[in-house]
Every structure is written in C-alpha cells, then in structure tokens.
Hints:
30% of the residues lie in helices and 24% in strands.
Amino acid sequence: xxxxxxxxxxxxxxxxxxxxxxxxxxxxxxxxxxxxxxxxxxxxxxxxxxxxxxxxxxxxxxxxxxxxxxxxxxxxxxxxxxxxxxxxxxxxxxxxxxxxxxxxxxxxxxxxxxxxxxxxxxxxxxxxxxxxxxxxxxxxxxxxxxxxxxxxxxxxxxxxxxxxxxxxxxxxxxxxxxxxxxxxxxxxxxxxxxxxxxxxxxxxxxxxxxxxxxxxxxxxxxxxxxxxxxxxxxxxxx
Length: 238
C-alpha cells in the first residue's frame, strides 16, 4: 500500500485537506497537492493518482465564466469517474462530482453554516458515515444539488436533504466539513465570509465557541469516516 499516491486539489488555499490528511497518510498514501491557480493544473491527468481528493471553495459550479478552470476540471473529473477510480469530494468538490454525474447544482434558499449533526439514513448505518452519528460537524455552504442517477444518498441535515452520497465503494461525496475543527484556517473562513455566518442566523462569537468546543470531536469522527472508507476501496486492475 505504501506506493499509492493521492492528489489533493485545492480550489482556494484556505480550504485544504486539514484533518483528513492524517488518515490518508496513515493508510500509506504519498500525498501530492495542487492549487487550481497553478499553471500546471490544466495539464494534469486526473486519472494519474490512486486517490483524488477535491476540497471546498466559495465558487459555484455555475460560475464557469468567472472561473474557466471549472469546465476544464469537470471534463477531466468525468474521465476519472468513468474509470471508477477512488475519488472523494468535499463541499464544492462534492458539488463537482454531482455535476459531473449529470446533477444540477444551484444556489439554495438558505446558508447552512455552523456545527450540527447529519442524519445518517438507515440503509447507510453500515457505511463509513456511521462514525458521524450524533456528532455535530461543521457545515459551511449555500449551494446544493439534485441527486445524480445511480448513487446512494447516505445522509441529510435539517437544512438540506443531500448531504452525502456514494457510488459503489470508490466514490464518496460529502457536503459538510468533518475535516475542520482543529485547523487555524477556520479563522480565515470567518474573516472571508462574515456575512455567511449572519445569513445563517448565527454570530461570530458563538461560531468560534462552537468550534473550540465541538471541533476536536468533529475531526475525530471525520477521520474515522475517511479511515474506514479507505479500507473499502476497490482498485480497478489491482
């Protein structure tokens, strides 16, 4: 397992892999990272790594005129998904997966920002998401998506129904941020989007307090989820 390679795609510098790095490295992956602003990004074959992790970002799938790399990334992502290679999408990364599978991604009616649990569906209680049951985890998004064909919905929240889905063993998409809770970049999120906190009905002081109190438990649950998911991957031709 030690010679397997993972690629993390960052859409903005302050949305990195955070707490998920530990279980990925513990599973024996050499981790590479690239930012979409890197001149080499447009040339990378997204099928070239054993594991692909796409993180979050403040942009929307529908803003391709403003972010030309989105369409470029989506084309190469579709090739990877066609090959059923292990892929994880977080927040914007999950929305990209949904869109690449034919779903509609759109701005939802409300912002979902703050710490609260997801409801893991009965049929998913044996999935890696079982580690998140009753654990408040961080949510920070305003976009949502229709459920793509051929996937299994794993979790919902009281704000948005489509919080996590999988396709077989190799594709996992999560709308929430169970990687965040111990990462100082959380401060950058609050500074970058203070309006989102207020729009979601919260305030900065309460959110910081929730982060301090609930962050460690959230990250531990997220790490357990990822660690279990990695043990279940089914590599083509392996």
